[in-house]
Amino acid sequence: AQSVTQPDIHITVSEGASLELRCNYSYGATPYLFWYVQSPGQGLQLLLKYFSGDTLVQGIKGFEAEFKRSQSSFNLRKPSVHWSDAAEYFCAVGSFGNEKLTFGTGTRLTIIP
Amino acid sequence: DADVTQTPRNRITKTGKRIMLECSQTKGHDRMYWYRQDPGLGLRLIYYSFDVKDINKGEISDGYSVSRQAQAKFSLSLESAIPNQTALYFCATSPAGKYQPQHFGDGTRLSIL
């Protein structure tokens, strides 16, 4: 069965600093992967997705993620965070033939001035 | 107007009551999903439907039922609510096909006393 691990429950970053949120997946075949962001009181918004091709994918709001098959990882990065990036971030994995997504438990991001 | 609309947005009710949460979409997507979100547990799939005549159980379907009234409508029912069903519930939609992301409503916060 596919699974996703987000090892960091909560991360605090200074505004303007760089950010990396970790995501590790478990699946035998090639997965497809997503990052979503959830602001308070709102649903999940898609940041970016990967299913093939270039392993570095660009998303909205200046985010990017890199798929590393050897490490079973799909970490989310941003070079310089803004206060508006404070939210909860979810990694999700799906697989061809099993069109359901499995979500990680989320990482809550706090931005300090 | 939101593409995926959930009603109500908030609901407080008592143990043993029957509750229906509704989801409607204007995106024209074939697939619809119901999730619940609990702190520290991420999103867990309750039921999903790939078209009007297709209903499938997710990982935590016990105590829940669904109805797909039309392509655009997918409702979730709690026949006899219990306190541990207190959670944030999300409806999501996606197009048919491989590697499709899901699009989420803003959620229903349900409290069962």
Descriptive notes:
The complex is a heterodimer of chains A (113) and B (113). In chain A, 0% of the residues lie in helices and 57% in strands. With 113 residues, chain A is mainly β. In chain A, strands 2, 5, 6, 10, 11 and 12 form a six-stranded mixed beta sheet that branches. A four-stranded antiparallel beta sheet of chain A has the order 3-9-8-7, with no helix packed on it. A two-stranded antiparallel sheet of chain A has the order 1-4. The model of chain A has no long low-confidence stretch (mean pLDDT 92). Chain B is built from no helices and eleven strands. In chain B, strands 2, 4, 5, 6, 9, 10 and 11 form a seven-stranded mixed beta sheet that branches. A four-stranded antiparallel beta sheet of chain B has the order 1-3-8-7, with no helix packed on it. By secondary structure, chain B is an all-beta fold. In chain B, a hairpin with a 2-residue loop joins strand 7 and strand 8. The model of chain B has no long low-confidence stretch (mean pLDDT 94). At the A-B interface, strand 5, strand 6 and strand 11 of A face strand 4, strand 5, strand 9 and strand 10 of B.
Q: The biggest beta sheet of chain A, please?
A: 6 strands, mixed
> What series of H and E elements makes up the topology of chain A?
EEEEEEEEEEEE
Task: Specify Rg of chain B, calculated over alpha carbons.
Answer: 13 Å
| Low-confidence runs of chain A | none
Structural class of chain B: mainly beta
What portion of the residues of chain B fall into strands of 2 or more residues? Answer: over 45%
Quantity of strands of chain B, as a count: 11
Helix content of chain A: under 10%
- Structural class estimated from helices and strands of chain A: mainly beta
Helix-strand pattern of chain B: EEEEEEEEEEE
